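anyone else get weird line breaks when pasting these?? whatever heres mine. first is seq + tokens for prot A
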Amino acid sequence: MPAMLVLTKLRKTYGTLTAVDGLSLSVKRGEVFGLLGPNGAGKTTTISIAVGLLKPDDGGAELHGLGLCIDPAVRRSIGVAPQSLAIYEALSGDENLRFFGSLYGLKGRLLAERVEMALAAVQLTDRRHDRASGYSGGMKRRLNLAAALIHDPPLLLLDEPTAGVDPQSRAGIIDMVRLLRDRGKTVIYTTHYMEEAQKVCDRVGIIDRGRLLDVGTVDELIERHGGSSVVTVKRGEIEEQVRTQDAVQTLAELVTQPGVTSVRVDRPDLESVFLTLTGRRLRD
């Protein structure tokens, strides 16, 4: 699978703070790639460099076959939904999308069709004429995403797209990301929600303090860094925990022992991976 976006040895500092520290990454065409890390890990700075909003101190970002992302012509092939909402609350949903579409040169029938498409994709058609100021937090997030979709770009960068939204809106956004992937779009998805990355991302990069610590599928990362499963067996009021690399075998042995009233298996997950790689928990 050819690369859609290539980041090479990116470095960005703010005074004495190093936000991105020699980060290199290749994102495949048609995949959902997750950047997983806590607040302040360097995710937003990396995204800003990738879309040409920030110039790195060193390194570069390139869109395959088109050129450097710092080039305005290349940036037209990228859709961005920033963590800080980029919508005009005094305008309606329809007016917001028409405005953003016009910035990409859309007009007339094509603009109208794209607005319809984007509103339908984020399930805001019935609220299209309402001012965005009256939208819920989840609706504003969805409109933010629709603005990134309006020009039908091949690459989408979604920075914490579910931050501060209700569970229903979060589920809707995750379903939409899956649909975009099914339509051949490439999506870079930054989050500090471990469960979201496990649900939606084909591959995940663990980032902390501006460095990319490892990249792989969720299963690959857990295999490399997750550690042991923990089997908890309860005998009356007494609990015993057993760490094991073969949870199925250990479970089979324990349940045959006398006096066992319950058992539970806790398998390693991305939280375990992050703790192993960084020495701290995801949301610390």
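and prot B, same format (seq, then tokens)
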Amino acid sequence: MIRWFGYRRFFLAGGLVLFAAFCLCREALSGPLDFDLADAHVKITSGFTGDDLVIFGSRGQDGDVVVVLEGPERHSVVRRKESVFGAWVNKSSLRFENTPSYYDYALSVEHEEDILSADFRAMKRVGLSAPMFLPDKDRYDGKTTKMFQEALLRNQQNSGLYRLKPQKVSFLGERLFRADFHLPSNVPSGTYKVRALLVRDGEVVSEQVKELRVGLTGFSAGVYKFAREHSVLYGLLCVGIACFAGWLSNTLVQRS
């Protein structure tokens, strides 16, 4: 019995040593920043009213954490209306290249100016103050171009596709962190980029990028795919269904 207890203590101590070595190796192999998505695919169905996106991560070094969520890049055109003989018409316009269709971000501090300079914010596209809207041509002066940029930002915010203020990165202890985002019901489909940055002393120490898939599923996805691949046949089917529905409703009214 005494010998059995001695072996038990020996194996217990050995197990604790191996577990500690495993934790140290894992800490050494892990980078200064790592994160993952709770769900890498947001499914848009016919009754989609929005969804919550949760991001968990860990930092291996001290520093502030920035998480950026960007939708697929698209081209956007901003038009300016002016009065011509008493009528408001689109007189001037400006086209912007590679603008994110959706943008949201989270910070471990209150303002991005507290951790990153203007040049770094522009390079890493952190914050809505960064010049992420670049025109395809220099058609106007700087003041007019800034007016179009502000109009594009305002339109995206009114549509709920750009947030008015950043989300909050909360820490679960010293290393683990969490960021919560809410995707609205009109969120665009496509492949999103989720970027996490570790910032220390005004410089980006580490950056990691992962993809998030947002798209239609089920019957809605089939209808959308069929409409894009067979647009003419889809239009004829819609006209046929509308005519049949009109004939059926007229027949039921006459019988009643």
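btw re prot B: DSSP finds five helices and twelve strands in the chain. Residues 7-13, 15-29 have pLDDT under 50 and may be disordered.
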